[in-house]
Amino acid sequence: MKKINMKVILISFILLLTLQIDAYSQNEHDTLNIMRKGPHLIFNGNNTEMQVFWQLNKTDTCLIKWGIDTLYSLGNQQIYEYGNDHQHKYLFTNLKPGNKYYYQIKVNDNIFDGSFYSALPENSDQVSFFAYGDTRTYPATHNNITKKMISLYKADPNLQTFILSTGDFVGNGDIESHWDTYFFDPSYSYIQEMLANLPFQSCIGNHERTGKLYRKYFPYPYISDDFYWSFDYGPVHFSILDQYASYNIDSKQLNWLEKDLISTDKKWKFIILHEPGWTAGFGHENNINVQKYIQPLCEKYGVQIVFGGHNHYYARAEVNSIVHITTGGGGAPLYNPDPTYPNIVITSKSNHFCKIEINKKILNFTAMTPDGEIIDHFILKTTE
Ligand SMILES: [Fe+2]
After folding, report:
1. Most exposed of 28, 320, 376, 383 (fewest Cβ within 10 Å)?
2. Distance separating alpha carbons of residues 182 and 176, to the nearest angstrom
3. CA 169–ligand 1 middle distance (angstroms)
């Protein structure tokens, strides 16, 4: 009798364990099947606001809650889809600049959460952020890079600000499935964790093609039907360019850029574009229009750094004290940089990201691999 009881208990235990494992796999499977893209954050330039976007696989009920901790006591709202592709968005407003907020999106019984810092106060003189680009082709590599950035901002909350991207998110930006598989695939959990916790601030790359789907998922406050715009964050002004619209002399974009640079009183001014003016060859040559039209404005209005990508490696060039960074090692197949190209200071054929830390008049720039190996470091000082 005792033997039979033991056998029954053992079989019941195994059965229960199997059911629990099945239930766990089912839950995880359900979660992956529910959220198609996101949640992902965008900073629109207003330091009392933050936008979150997400896309479901089917019409479903969503509740968003937010607060200054995980009690989410500041508010909650039911969110209905917009457009015709199960997209959702919410604009957090009345935020106190430079404060941490937490949010949670509930889709039926499935929970997706994230957090962010509202952008710094206007008069703040310190800021840190990450920059990288060309994340297309190998999401596993991209995932590994984001894993390192997440570990850094978890160790130092000053780094949980935003991420700057130099474009080329996916293989072909006009193909919907490329956004699903190259960029928003929920199984690449670190990429998704980064997108849910750091606003993603980008320029358009050539791989975004017409930009139709890029605009769908990254609706920044563009100036016109093209993809250029600008924003302030603490002591920095960022001008984001669209190199697939004209920026020749007398073009709308170049006129806008000049006015944009004249009108800012920020100490630090950076330009973000996809195709660098000075880079290290082997992939794409130097972009002559950047040399002809952008560089003179940088010299005239005190832009310190131009961030580019397009070539899949790291390179730093310096031209009349303006630093031109090629940060294209976010996941695309690596190219061989040629360190003998004009004005090149240093190159590295590495997957990498950049960490920029500004403290008043001093800027510390570090480029590092996902393993934490430092491939470049330099300091800039502003005279203002
Ligand atoms: Fe490119």
Report:
1. 383
2. 10
3. 9
Compute the distance from residue 204 Cα to the ligand 1 centre, in Å.
Answer: 9
| Residue 270 within a domain | yes
Ligand 1 centroid distance, CA of 310 (Å)? 4
Task: Output the CA 207–ligand 1 centroid distance in Å.
Answer: 6
| 197-243 per-position pLDDT tens digit | 999 999 999 999 999 999 999 999 999 999 999 999 999 999 999 99
From 72, 89, 117, give the residue that closes a domain.
Answer: 117
Express each pLDDT in 165-187 by its tens digit. 999 999 999 999 999 999 999 99
Which range of residues forms the domain containing residue 107?
37-117
User: 30 CA distance to ligand 1 centroid (A)?
Assistant: 35
CATH code, 74: 2.60.40.10
Q: What is the pTM of this model?
A: 0.92
Closest Cα partner for 51 from 40, 65, 36, 62?
40
Number of Cβ atoms within 10 Å of the Cβ of 175: 14
Spacing, Cα 79 to ligand 1 middle (Å)? 36
Q: 231 near 222, Cβ under 8 Å?
A: no
CA torsion sign for 317, 323, 326, 327 is positive
CA 240 – ligand 1 centroid, Å: 15
Which of 117, 140, 156 marks a domain boundary? 117
Is residue 67 located within the same domain as residue 180?
Answer: no
Give the CATH number for residue 303. 3.60.21.10
In angstroms, what is the span from residue 287 Cα to ligand 1's centroid? Answer: 12
Q: Report whether 126 contacts 178 (CB < 8 A).
A: no
